[in-house]
Design a protein that fits this description.
Rossmann fold; 7-stranded parallel β-sheet; 45% helix
């Protein structure tokens, strides 16, 4: 069956039929960057293909997508608040207006296929595409899907996922295990010393790298600030991305063997320099961290919809690919868990193997192939 599908894909590519793709997703980088990766892979694979993004007005995709070189149009949709909120009064009106906006965008652009990567805007866009009988596909990054993708899954043609067991939420016959699209990785053991020197660290000393996201993570920053001497006592140096929001607050913690940066632009150097990693558990980050394969402690953010990050982290922990500490358990557990990881070489090796076994480095290619197969 797979061989037949691959033959069809090759035939389609060599028949040089450009695809007109509408891709909708946003609200967070976790929805936007997979969408950009899919669009780029399509244009690289089939020349002449055209891509139009559709996002939610006022959300970060309206800025990030044009910077990546793609056209985007906005609809008026916003999320339904789970708590009592005046915004909820406008939700029905916004939804109706967004459905009409999506209809006119689709009729004008005339897409061959419509793809959703999650977020507010993908709901009305894919719903209208389904009403119009267009092929549709959703890409779910998380192990616990949001309400938008769960509703859309009933009518979409294909569902690309990154975690096992997604038949709890989606029809089994539609699920394709593709992984999450990630940036290209250039990891080399021989580059570790150079990468440490790049950040001004000791090239011969093991390094703990902390990722708090581009804006930062307050609880993780507070934790590291309070544990610097404990970490150094374990003969480790620290490479700490504290986030732009918190840099002014924590930059005075920089000292010998502690490098603090608000944002890291060269993530290849960052990953090469790391021997151990502490991170949040966003789906996109986890997909990268699986490819990196460095011993890992995850501290999921509790402030996300449906507790996505905990479910993502737990999925890795059940495979032996990470240790997980909840934010409210950090004071009691961090030193014990971290020490057990740093001092157990066998556990580190097993975790690295488990992470790499979960890595899917060609997710963008697999998703585009699935799009072509639908056509």
């Amino acid at each position: 069956m797979r061989t037949d599908k691959n033959k069809l894909i090759i035939q389609y590519i060599y028949s040089v039929k450009p695809i007109r793709l509408i891709v909708s997703g946003g609200g967070t980088g976790g929805h936007i960057y997979p969408a950009l990766a899919i669009a780029t892979e399509l244009k690289n694979k089939i020349s002449g293909s055209e891509v139009l993004f559709v996002g939610a007005l006022g959300k970060m995709e309206m800025e990030k997508v044009p910077k990546a070189g793609y056209q985007i149009k906005g609809v008026w949709i916003s999320g339904f608040q789970r708590s009592l909120s005046l915004q909820n009064i406008l939700f029905p009106l916004k939804l109706i207006v967004s459905l009409f906006q999506a209809f006119f965008i689709i009729k004008q652009f005339k897409p061959t296929i419509v793809v959703g990567t999650g977020g507010f805007a993908s709901g009305p866009v894919l719903q209208v595409a389904q009403w119009l009988g267009l092929p549709t596909l959703i890409q779910e990054q998380n192990s616990y899907p949001g309400i938008t993708n769960r509703l859309l899954s009933k009518k979409v043609d294909s569902i690309c996922v990154a975690f096992e067991g997604m038949d709890r939420f989606f029809p089994l016959h539609k699920i394709k295990m593709t992984g999450n699209p990630i940036r290209s990785m250039d990891l080399n053991v021989n580059s570790s010393k150079d990468a440490k020197q790049f950040f001004g660290l000791d090239k011969n000393k093991k390094t703990l790298a902390i990722i708090g996201g581009s804006l930062g993570a307050k609880k993780i920053n507070e934790l590291i600030a309070s544990k610097i001497e404990f970490i150094k006592h374990l003969d480790l140096q620290i490479l700490w991305q504290c986030g732009e929001l918190y840099y002014e607050e924590f930059k005075n913690k920089a000292q010998e063997s502690v490098v603090i940066q608000p944002f890291v632009y060269d993530m290849n150097q960052f990953y090469n320099a790391a021997d151990f990693i502490i991170s949040r558990a966003g789906a996109g980050s986890l997909s990268e961290l699986c490819s990196v394969g460095k011993p890992l402690i995850l501290i999921p953010s509790p402030n996300v919809t449906a507790n996505h990050q905990f479910h993502n982290a737990d999925a890795l922990a059940r495979k032996g690919a990470a240790m997980v500490i909840k934010e409210n358990e950090l004071p009691a557990q961090f030193e014990t868990v971290f020490t057990s990881l740093v001092t157990d070489n066998e556990a580190q090796a097993k975790m690295s193997l488990a992470l790499k076994s979960l890595a899917k480095t060609d997710a963008s290619k697999a998703i585009v192939n699935e799009m072509i197969a639908l056509l």
